[in-house]
Amino acid sequence: MIPNFKAHPWHGVSAGEDAPNVVNVFVEIVPSDTIKYEVDKETGYLKVDRPQKFSNIIPALYGFVPRTYCDNEVMKLAVESGASDVTTGDHDPLDICVLSSHNIHGGGLFMEAIPIGGFKMIDGGEADDKIVAVMVGDHAFGHFRDIAELPDAEVKRLMHYFLTYKNLPDEPAKCRIQEVYGVEHAKKVIKASQKDYADKFGG
């Protein structure tokens, strides 16, 4: 009998055959979560990172693109965008939030998503890009192909979450968004993170 085997969601699954146009996403948290989960880098299992401190609820499915890593190549794109205080990537897989009209009850699953843009977020001198994507086949969001096509309120809702989820109300902002970029730059970020992954872990 062949023993059961679970591929590591970061290292054991590809970014997708058609990446960066369509990417695999490992979903860690969903909008109904009051706990922040993240993948344990050693085992590949979801673990509790921390309870959400405040009323901030992530407005989209949130996870990462497998076999990506944010280091020098991702940092260079941030510098090219005018972020003079950036010294490195955040040394994590590339973050991605996926818009969908469907109520998915929990993370720990894979889906295909179409990148449409992103946020050049700078967090304590680290490039911490957030790719924005739509779930393949989603009836409400699946037709969008660039972040500029989204309602402005949807973009601002995402931005507000990322700019405030780490802060107490009376604290100064810990991070900023250097720019909001469209689909073509999102693809550059994905490719850069794939190169950073290859440089760190091998092809």
Automatic annotation (TrEMBL):
Name the cofactor(s): Mg(2+)
What is one GO cellular-component annotation here? cytoplasm
Q: List this protein's GO terms for biological process.
A: phosphate-containing compound metabolic process
Q: Name the EC number(s).
A: 3.6.1.1
The GO terms describing molecular function are:
inorganic diphosphate phosphatase activity; magnesium ion binding
**Keyword field contains Transit peptide:** no
Keywords attached to this entry: Hydrolase, Magnesium, Metal-binding
Q: What is this protein called?
A: inorganic diphosphatase
Give the originating organism.
Answer: Chryseobacterium soli
